[in-house]
Structure formats: C-alpha cells, structure tokens
Design goal:
Blueprint: H1 3-14, E1 28-32, H2 38-41, E2 63-68, E3 74-79, E4 87-94, E5 100-105, E6 111-118, E7 123-130, E8 135-138, E9 144-149, E10 152-154, E11 162-167, E12 174-175, E13 184-189, E14 195-199, E15 203-207, E16 213-215, E17 224-229, E18 235-239, E19 243-249, E20 252-255, E21 264-270, E22 276-281, E23 288-295, E24 301-305, E25 315-323, E26 329-335, E27 344-350, E28 362-364, E29 369-371, E30 376-379, E31 381-382, E32 388-395, E33 398-399, E34 412-415, E35 426-433, E36 436-439, E37 443-447, H3 464-475, H4 492-504
C-alpha cells in the first residue's frame, strides 16, 4: 500500500486527537486510488455509494449494481434485452462467505402497448410491453426499495404507470401506495426503514417505518426530488432549476448554498452526521467544483471548496461522490494541466476528525432475532467503548423504561415474558459519549409462539421431557421460566402460564 494510504491507517488507529472545530474549514489529504489493485481497494472503508470492486460472486450476467449494504448485500438489476421492456430487479443476499444468492423481483404487472404507423406504401403495427422492477436503494439489513410497473395498456410505452415497492426477501415486493392511481416512487431508504420519494399530484414525501407520511415543503416555490436519506432521517436531493436541497427533518426543506454564483448545484451523498458532498458548476462550462457541506446547529449548512482544503498540491476535484461516517470522501478529479476532467479517483482522508465525529463508533449492530419461546436478547458492540457514557435501548423509536428492565441501559438488552403480540417490534440502541451519540441499526423481533412450550428434544412434539425442562429452569430461578407478571420473580403465575402454553400444543 502507498505511504499516504498508510498514513490513513495510522491516523485511524491514533484517533487523530484534535477535532476540527465547528465552522473551521476541514483539511484533507488526497490519495490517488485510480490504479490501485483489487487487494488495495479492499482496504478502503465502506461507502454505500461507492463500491470499488465488482458485485459479489453469484451475480447474474449483465448485473448492474445500485447499492451495497455494509452487511455485503447488493441491490441491482439486469436488462431484459427487449426494447422498452425495462429491467428486472435483483437482490444479491450475502452468504457470509464471499458469495451471494440472487433473488429476482417480480413486477406488479405488465403494461402492454401497440400502435399502427402508415406511410404512402403500407402500414405497420408496432407493439411490446413494459415489465420493470428496478430497485433504487437498499439499507443495512438488505431491505430495498424501487419501482414496478402496474397492469395496464396503451398506445405508447411511456404511458406505463409505476408504483413504489419495498422488498425484504420474505415474499414478493409490497406496493407502498396501493390506493394511488398515478405514479409513485421510492428513491431511498435508511437503516430505520424510513423512505423518501414522490407521489404524482401530491409531491415528495418522507415515510416513517410505520407508514406515516410527511410531505416535504417546496424550496423557493419549486417542488423537491429526494435522492438520499441518512440514518437520522436527513434527506438530500434536487429542486428546479438544477439546485440542491436538504431536509433536516419533518417537512422542512432548505436550499443548499454553492461556492459563489453558480448555476448548478448537486448533492450526491451524506453521512449520518449530515455532512454532505457534491458539486457545483455553470450550464455552459464542463468544469465543475467539488463541495463539502458542513451542518450547522440550526438546520443550515456551510459550503466548503474541497480543492481549497487539500494538503495535496496539483490535485483538482470536479465532484465528491461519497462520504462515510468517519469523514472519508471519494472524489473525482484530475492533475492540474495533465489529465482530462474526472479521469482520476481520489480517496480523501481528513487530517483531523471533523466536528461531531467523535461520537461512539458501532462495530457490531443488533441483528434480527426469531424466537420460539418467551425470551430474547439483542446486543451491540462499540469500538471505542471506553468513551461510552450510556446505552439506551428503544422499542419502535421509544426509550425502554430502564427501571422495569435494567438491561435497556447496557450493551445487551434482555427481554422476557414475550408473546405473539411482541412480534414485529423494532429495537435499536442510542449510544452516548461525551461528544455525541450514535444510533444503531434497527433489529426486528419475531416471536413464533406456536411451540413456546417445546423446551426439549424431540422438538415438534410436547411430552414429559418439556415439562421436566421447564421445572429445571424454574428450580434454577432461570429468567427463561419467567413467563408472567410480576416479572423478575418466579411464582405460581409462571407455572400457570407454562401449563397454558403446553395445552396450546404444537402445529
């Protein structure tokens, strides 16, 4: 690895002690990775919007990647090879061993089209169909969103109606707006299941994980078009004419500033601390300028020219296309006076952590859990755990009472007394340090109580061994035997609860 890349690794280990102050222009070192080998590229940190290597093994021929999750899942599509037919969505679900299994996304329906065209000699009938399920984004757990054609017919392929879908691998795609007659889109999704997109005739929206819609306000009288959403629900995108916007939350939208009097501004990516990267330029000038936007405390952003913040001489940057939560940036550019525009790819390493980037770094997020009994647990691992002041687990976005469940204030959440009613709950954890907080990815609990009393082999059949197993848990004062209120104490109510589960039987 070259010396600058080594500098990046060394700085990461030391933690780059002095952080950049809010409002102070950040400084960067540019590492040219244009000609890096595959093994060198593999050492780069994870970027959702930049994947230096090809798709995982198992990708079908002609696969085009749209997004890749930190868990290794990949969302993309294959061209069906038929004019106007569109693309077929594909989910490549990582197997944990470097490969992936392809899951094809079926469209909601096909749109058939046909028309006659006549000249002075004869007439011809042209016909075809549109059957498209192109994905647009994917979150950490492999849930992806996209668009799909509906059933219909007309005289022209552009008449096809598309609806936004969500696909989580448990079945076919789900129509997010089944009651809408017109076009709907889902542009992006975050790790909490929040989605941003557009509904024809209504405008752009943010959709919470429970389906609640909030319509985004216009910017300077123009409607907005979302393109990215971060883990905290901050949205970026574009608005007419060729400008960029950000939504710090709710319906609020703001125009992102440029570097002067530029006609075009594009916001291309953002991290979970709401630092945004992109580019600006003029309509009739091929040269553009890479921008880093710094978030303020009042829902505003300050624009910095990335070239002016480089410690590396002779490098010109046309665009910044990706940024991670540690402040690393991927940019396109060229060497001054020697290259074509955007002919080189650069990895930008901050000389010091940017303001707000000393928050806890989660190395292992909680994962989805399915249980057949009444207990479950979720865990989290923080890399810089020595800086952590507190943990707060949440259920469906609301803090869990630590008085009734003390484990909600620890790195491992323990749940007891679960029933079928608890299935589908979304758990995450807010980890706080002296200089910030980090929200984990969410994890979903699935409770399958069909055989909750089935505690011993042979599984699938209830018998004396299951009763003996429960008595053993009860006598050992094991929390797994704590089936009924008051929780925390084993008593006759827990015995009665188990008898009730036993009598329900197994399917």
């Amino acid at each position: 690895m070259d010396t600058l890349a080594g500098r990046w690794c060394f700085a990461a280990v030391l933690g780059m002690a002095a952080a950049t102050a809010v409002g102070e222009p950040p400084r960067y070192t540019a590492v040219d990775i244009t000609d890096w080998s595959a093994s060198q590229l593999a050492t780069l940190p994870y970027f959702k919007r930049f994947t230096p290597s090809g798709p995982p093994a198992g990708a079908p021929a002609g696969y085009t990647e749209v997004a890749r999750s930190s868990a290794g899942h990949s969302a993309g599509y294959v061209d069906q090879g038929i004019p106007y037919a569109g693309n077929r969505g594909v989910m490549l679900r990582a197997d944990g061993m470097g490969g992936a299994t392809a899951e094809y996304i079926d469209a909601f329906g096909s749109y058939s089209w046909g028309y006659w065209s006549c000249d002075s000699h004869d007439c011809h009938y042209y016909f075809g169909y549109v059957r498209d399920s192109t994905p647009s984004d994917m979150n950490w757990s492999g849930v992806m969103v996209g668009r799909s054609t509906l059933w219909g017919s007309g005289s022209d392929p552009i008449g096809a109606v598309f609806h936004a879908y969500l696909y989580d691998g448990s079945g076919g795609p789900v129509d997010l707006f089944p009651g809408e007659a017109g076009q709907t889109t889902a542009a992006c999704i975050n790790n909490r299941g929040e989605i941003a997109g557009f509904i024809l005739g209504q405008g752009s929206y943010r959709r919470s994980w429970d389906g609640t819609l909030t319509m985004l306000a216009p910017v300077m009288g123009h409607s907005v078009s979302p393109s990215r959403i971060n883990g905290e629900g901050v949205i970026i995108g574009s608005h007419y004419p060729s400008r960029a916007f950000a939504s710090p939350g709710g319906a609020v939208t703001v125009d992102l500033p440029d570097l002067g009097s530029f006609e075009t501004v594009s916001a291309l990516d953002l991290n979970d601390s709401a630092w945004i990267v992109g580019m600006c330029g003029q309509f009739n000038d091929p040269e553009t300028y890479a921008i880093l936007w710094e978030p303020g405390s009042g829902g505003e952003w300050t624009a910095w020219d990335l070239v002016e913040q480089l410690d590396t001489p002779g490098v010109l940057l046309e665009s910044a296309i990706a940024i991670d939560n540690a402040g690393h940036i991927i940019a396109r550019g060229h060497l001054d006076g020697t290259d074509d525009f955007s002919s080189r790819t650069y990895f930008l390493v901050p000389d010091a952590p940017l303001a707000g980037w000393c928050a806890p770094d989660i190395g292992q997020h909680p994962s989805d859990t399915t249980v057949g009994g009444t207990t479950a647990s979720f865990g989290i691992v923080v890399v810089n755990a020595g800086d952590v002041l507190s943990y707060q687990w949440r259920l469906n976005g609301l803090p869990i009472d630590t008085a009734s469940n003390p484990s909600a204030a620890t790195a491992t959440l323990e749940l007891v007394g679960l029933t079928a009613a608890d299935s589908g709950g979304m758990y995450d954890c807010v980890v706080t340090s002296a200089c910030g907080e980090t929200l984990s990815n969410p994890a979903v609990l699935t409770v399958d109580p069909a055989c909750a009393a089935d505690l011993a082999e042979p599984f699938g059949v209830l018998n004396i061994f299951d009763i003996q197993a429960f008595i053993g848990l009860y006598n050992a004062q094991d929390a797994a035997a704590d089936l009924a209120a008051p929780f925390g104490t084993l008593n006759i109510f827990d015995l009665q609860a188990y008898i009730g589960l036993y009598n329900q039987g197994c399917p």
